[in-house]
Amino acid sequence: MKLRNEVTDLRQAADRIRSADRILVMGCSGGGKSTLSQKICACLDLPYVSMDREFFWLPGWVKRDKAEERALIAAKVAEERWLIDGTAPSSFDLRLPRTEFVLWVRMPRWLCMWGALSRAVRWLGRSRPDMAPGCPERIDSDFLRYIWDWERKFAPKVLVGLAQHGPDVPVLQLKSRREMRRLLDLLGRPA
């Protein structure tokens, strides 16, 4: 399935991102979407919203009730300005109709694995800033398998969700760290 409204030119994407008030950044864990999201928010003075921190998790890695999660997402997307960091196709129906631009961080799986492992080493036993308080960093074989299988199992769901809930939302796929750096340069990286 092809993206209907894909943007392939980084300069054009940067122009569109600069004028957007509501941006969705998604992709596989370990791909760098949270780091990219926070840098874009600093460039554009957009409020940063981590789905993990604000919607999904309660202290002690307790999953938030689905109805409460959806209510929190609906309230947040009703706001005028945000950048939401997180994929979660189950809430595309709430987020995509309000999204003005999608960045899909689509790194090779080996890079996502490396990113997740190096993050785990860096934050082991502590909660990272984009995670809910009381959820110390951890890594296990299920999580690594999730990353390994992400492109095969979850990318098709993303494509279907984009087509169904955001067919006219422009999407830029970032497939390398070099593309991410170039985009940030075009946006005017914060000092």
TrEMBL record:
Transmembrane segments: none annotated. It comes from the Bacteria. This is AAA family ATPase. It comes from Rhizobium jaguaris. The lineage of its organism: Bacteria, Pseudomonadati, Pseudomonadota, Alphaproteobacteria, Hyphomicrobiales.
